[in-house]
């Protein structure tokens, strides 16, 4: 008789759907390799199914989470548990991956023999659409799994499943810059895994159980020696996850990997991968918050350092992808700022801020993909990777410019991007409530600096367009349908949550 008696396929569907989709895509590629659109269609359907099954957990109550893989009594421990926050993060991972698949949707105008839809014909991803879709789905399954994992074993496996396919996605571009970015990301991942594995071992030694639970933390807290070991383990776990979140001083891989990979891959790193990393960190810190552990001041220091360095370096970037890479570093500081309080309200604020950041960043990347696609086949491929390519966009392509403008003001925390402003207020609330005024003052100063970062790009949208770069702004007729659908989906979501922020932030409250 198996020790695991509980297996609820519907509860596990947010993980099983993308995993099954990845397998189905590979089987389809063997049976019908020329059906390029079919691979993407299967991937989209798998993600839509995962989204549908993740909704009940996200709309549920904290006291009655969705559980599966539970041991029989008297132990009764469950290895999979998805409450509202975990469900919301699963929705974020699945939805962001859906946008990424639309960004790489095959373009009907692509020449035969090229890897269509992944990148303009000048610089395709290697391996074919089936490989790309399967990698995205596999990483998304890992992101959804780590959000609900409660035992060390499945948590570690899910975390690495969410990470390693991203390395391959960066490398598949096949250029020297892509190789450098992939090596940087791979090296970072190996160091991160070493820290996380050591931290997990220390957690097991101190808590006596391979699970993230309040009871395990309380058992370790009962003895001074074991409590010190547990805190050391938590610091190692947080440090290892800091690499994946692009937190200072673990951030060096971020601009290399973003610039080396294609724009859709950079969007995946900025969105889905960050959801997986935060979900893993929440799984570690939630038992500490429930046990009312001491404040993790180190987390606050790292948050402030990330905000400051990210904003300062983003101010001097001319490549929009590199700007968004350093923006990720700065925004990661805001994401973890509430976690310095180690209270339940801080966990919810962190999750809400990340989801708001993900939506706005996906809109920005969708516009970048469209601009690069328009510039590549008709002129200098690098033309779409400068801020000058966006001059006059609000005049010549008002809808495209308005979508990008709303994304930028949302990231800056300015109206009409109300969701960004509310998310920043919610991130500051637990910090102020715990009396961490120094952290709050540094965060406010960085909020002002962040406004300068995004308004610098926003101002370009109003400038007079140069004739030399005017062709970089795509028309609706020439734009590929996949990225257009991705922009429409993400921009609609951003408008909705800007009008009614509670639609998003209420999921994690």
TrEMBL record:
Signal peptide: none
Transmembrane segments: 6-28, 40-59, 85-106, 127-149, 184-206, 226-253, 265-285, 291-316, 323-348, 354-378, 399-423, 435-455, 484-508
Cited Pfam families: Proton_antipo_M (PF00361)
The organism's place on the tree of life at top rank: Bacteria
GO cellular component labels: endomembrane system; membrane
UniProt keyword Transmembrane present: yes
Membrane topology note: Multi-pass membrane protein
The NADH:quinone oxidoreductase/Mrp antiporter transmembrane domain, residue ranges: 149-449
Alphabetized UniProt keyword annotations: Membrane, Transmembrane, Transmembrane helix
Subcellular location(s) of the protein: Endomembrane system; Membrane
Protein name: NADH-quinone oxidoreductase subunit N
Organism: Pedococcus cremeus
């Amino acid at each position: 008789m198996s020790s695991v008696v509980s297996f609820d396929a519907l509860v596990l569907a947010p993980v099983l759907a993308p995993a099954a989709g990845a397998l189905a895509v590979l089987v389809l590629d063997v049976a019908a390799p020329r059906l390029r659109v079919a691979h993407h269609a299967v991937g989209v359907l798998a993600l839509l199914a995962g989204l549908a099954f993740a909704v009940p957990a996200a709309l549920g109550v904290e006291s009655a989470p969705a559980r599966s893989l539970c041991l029989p009594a008297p132990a009764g421990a469950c290895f999979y548990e998805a409450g509202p926050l975990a469900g919301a993060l699963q929705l974020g991972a699945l939805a962001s991956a859906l946008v990424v698949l639309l960004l790489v949707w095959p373009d009907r105008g692509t020449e035969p023999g090229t890897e269509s839809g992944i990148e303009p014909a000048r610089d395709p991803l290697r391996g074919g659409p089936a490989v790309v879709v399967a990698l995205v789905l596999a990483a998304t399954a890992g992101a959804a799994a780590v959000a609900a994992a409660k035992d060390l074993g499945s948590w570690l496996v899910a975390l690495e499943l969410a990470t390693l396919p991203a390395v391959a996605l960066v490398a598949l571009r096949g250029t020297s810059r892509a190789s450098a970015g992939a090596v940087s990301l791979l090296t970072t991942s190996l160091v991160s895994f070493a820290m996380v594995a050591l931290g997990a071992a220390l957690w097991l030694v101190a808590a006596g159980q391979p699970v993230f639970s309040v009871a395990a933390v309380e058992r370790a807290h009962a003895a001074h020696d074991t409590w010190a070991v547990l805190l050391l383990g938590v610091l190692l776990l947080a440090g290892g996850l800091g690499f994946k979140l692009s937190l200072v001083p673990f951030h060096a891989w971020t601009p290399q990997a973003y610039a080396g990979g294609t724009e859709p891959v950079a969007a995946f790193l900025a969105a889905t991968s960050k959801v997986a990393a935060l979900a893993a960190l929440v799984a570690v810190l939630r038992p500490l918050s429930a046990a009312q552990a001491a404040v993790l001041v180190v987390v606050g220091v790292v948050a402030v350092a990330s905000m400051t360095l990210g904003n300062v370096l983003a101010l001097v970037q001319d490549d929009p992808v590199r700007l968004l890479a350093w923006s990720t570093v700065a925004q990661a500081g805001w994401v973890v700022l509430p976690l310095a309080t180690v209270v339940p309200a801080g966990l919810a604020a962190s999750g809400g801020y990340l989801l708001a950041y993900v939506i706005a960043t996906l809109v920005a990347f969708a516009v970048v993909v469209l601009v690069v696609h328009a510039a590549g086949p008709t002129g200098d491929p690098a033309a779409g990777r400068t801020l000058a390519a966006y001059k006059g966009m609000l005049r010549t392509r008002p809808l495209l410019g308005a979508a990008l403008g709303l994304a930028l003001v949302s990231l800056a925390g300015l109206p009409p991007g109300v969701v960004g402003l509310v998310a920043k207020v919610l991130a500051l609330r637990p910090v102020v409530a715990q009396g961490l005024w120094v952290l709050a003052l540094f965060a406010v100063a960085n909020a002002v600096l962040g406004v300068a970062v995004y308004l610098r790009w926003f101002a370009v949208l109003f400038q007079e367009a140069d004739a030399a770069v005017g062709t970089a702004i795509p028309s609706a007729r020439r734009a590929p349908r996949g990225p257009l659908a991705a922009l429409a989906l993400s921009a609609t979501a951003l408008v909705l949550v800007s009008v009614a922020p509670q639609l998003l932030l209420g999921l994690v409250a």
